[in-house]
Amino acid sequence: MNICLVGYGAIAEKHMEAFREMPELYPAYLVGRREEPTKRFAARWGFPRWTLSLDEALADPSIDAVVITSPNHVHAQQAERSLRAGKHVLVEIPLALSLHDCERVVRVSREQNRRLMIAHTMRYFPAIREIHRRVQAGELHIYHFVGEFTMVRRENVTAAGQARSWTDNLLWHHGAHMVDIILWITGSSEADVFCRFGSEHPTQGVMDLSLSMAMPGGQIATLAQSYYSCQFRWRLTFIAEETTLEFDMGELHEADGTVIVPRHSIVDLRDQNREFVEAIREGRDPAITGKDVMPAMRLLHRAQESADSLRHAEPE
Questions:
Q1: CA–CA gap between residue 164 and residue 295 (Å, rounded)
Q2: What percent of the chain has pLDDT over 70?
Q3: What is the DSSP letter of 307?
Q4: Mean pLDDT score, 94-105
Q5: Which of 19, 78, 93, 241 has its CA 20 to 30 A from that of 275?
Q6: Are residues 130 and 246 in the same domain?
């Protein structure tokens, strides 16, 4: 199976580490935005061809699938172009930065009869899967989700410390992880939502937000996110009738610190990417389709509307 990778950042490296363990995968084409880093990445991972033009790569009939790891704001249009070119697509979270764009890409995937998988990687964390299992088995009845996600983004640089030419989106990117998981675990497709944006950077946009959810089953969620932190932190506490459990950077433990699921890398993409490849080979939908993530996208849309309405109502 020949793949085209779009992007050469930190998450692109993790995708290639995962694909490296699949001998049936061949890295055929790399698409980048700047010549020098594209050439370096292609040489490092054995891509025989690279280009700065997505259309050039898509015109190659030997390409079976496209893996999109580019900046958030181009995910939707690149996914749509790839699907219309007859390619299967694995696209990094978020699928898009608007509900309208999400709906369009999902519709195109069905019209073209191509596999579309969204990298909602948190669903593959062993710790989160154990929570999901317990809830589905009736062993855990959650009252409250308390989430915290913070990153060091006071300067707009990459994980390697190099200046970035694009800005991230706190709500639609990192908020999508938490919102999707809460809906997935509770089995909800709807929720009441309230969102408020905090500080804004003059060039990077929203840097802090607070988001709350109320599910039809009575569960509530309280999420706090910030790009102004001095440390990377990813936590989700599950306050349940039976116990209180905490997901902390890939580990699941009891309130007293007893480890239930040992720490697992949050950038281990092997199981996720293997599912994408197997779905193509077997001619079936992958585990996380565009349709599957639409409930989270609709809720993010309402969260955006909620935050915008508050911001516009504030006196200047």
A1: 31
A2: 98
A3: H
A4: 98
A5: 78
A6: yes
Evaluate if pTM is beyond 0.90. yes
Residue 68, SS3 per DSSP: strand
Q: Are residues 206 and 242 in the same domain?
A: yes
The rounded distance, in Å, linking the Cα atoms of 28 and 14 is 17
Distance separating alpha carbons of residues 47 and 42, to the nearest angstrom: 5
- What CATH number is attached to the domain comprising 30? 3.40.50.720
Classify residue 171 by its DSSP letter. Answer: I
127, 264 Cβ separation under 8 angstroms = yes
Same-domain status, 307 and 183: yes
Give yes or no: residues 84 and 193 share one domain.
Answer: no
DSSP 8-state symbol, 21: T
Helix (H, G, I), strand (E, B) or coil at 92: strand
In a domain, 283, yes or no: yes
C-alpha R_g of the chain: 20
The C-alpha atoms of residue 93 and residue 39 are separated, in whole angstroms, by 25
Range of the domain at 77: 2-120+270-288
What integer pLDDT is reported at residue 199 of this predicted model?
87
Cα separation values, 126 from 7, 182, 254, 265, 267, Å: 27, 15, 15, 10, 12
Q: Are residues 241 and 130 in the same domain?
A: yes
Task: Determine, yes or no, domain membership for 259.
Answer: no
57 closest CA partner among 72, 44, 67: 67
Three-class DSSP category at 179: helix
DSSP letters, 230-273, are EEEEEEEEEEESS-EEEEETTEEEETTS-EEE----TT--HHHH
Q: Residue 200: which CATH number?
A: 3.30.360.10
Tokens of 271: 């199981």
